[in-house]
Amino acid sequence: MLKITTVTNAESIAFRLEGRLAGPWVKELERCWDSIVGTMTTHPLIVDLSAVTYVDSDGKDLLKKIHRQGATLVASGCLTSSIVKEITQSVRSGERTK
Questions:
Q1: What does pLDDT average to in each consecutive run of 10 residues of the chain (98 residues)?
Q2: Which stretches of the chain are DSSP H helices?
Q3: How many CB atoms lie within 10 A of CB 92?
Q4: For residue 74, how many other CB atoms are within 10 A of its CB?
Q5: CA-to-CA distance for 38 and 6, rounded, in angstroms?
């Protein structure tokens, strides 16, 4: 299960994720993300992964896409910090994703 909370304020739009970013929850996050990005917001976009407990390969691919579209990925703990480091390094090196 994945809980997605969207927090909008004067400075940013943040997605707070809690749980597992895997299986059908990847598509749900993508749907939520696309609905916000489609509004052409000028607010900085943040994805907070601090409470994520697991990310499958499709989830990582989506996070790469989200990062490429300008979002800042926030992490805490070993798991999410490692994933964010992997994504940001691959994006910087120009790695292609799905």
A1: 92 94 97 84 90 96 94 92 90 59
A2: 24-37, 57-68, 77-92
A3: 8
A4: 17
A5: 15
* pLDDT at residue 95, as a whole number: 59
SS3 80: helix
Contact, 31 vs 64, CB < 8 A?
no
Query: Under the phi-then-psi rule, with left for phi > 0, alpha for psi from -120 to 50, and beta for the rest, what region is 21?
Result: beta
Write down the pTM of the prediction.
0.86
Domains, the chain, in order of start with CATH, read 2-92 (3.30.750.24)
Name residue 51's beta-bridge partners.
18
For residue 69, count other CB atoms closer than 10 A to its CB: 11
In this predicted structure, what is the pLDDT of residue 90? Answer: 78
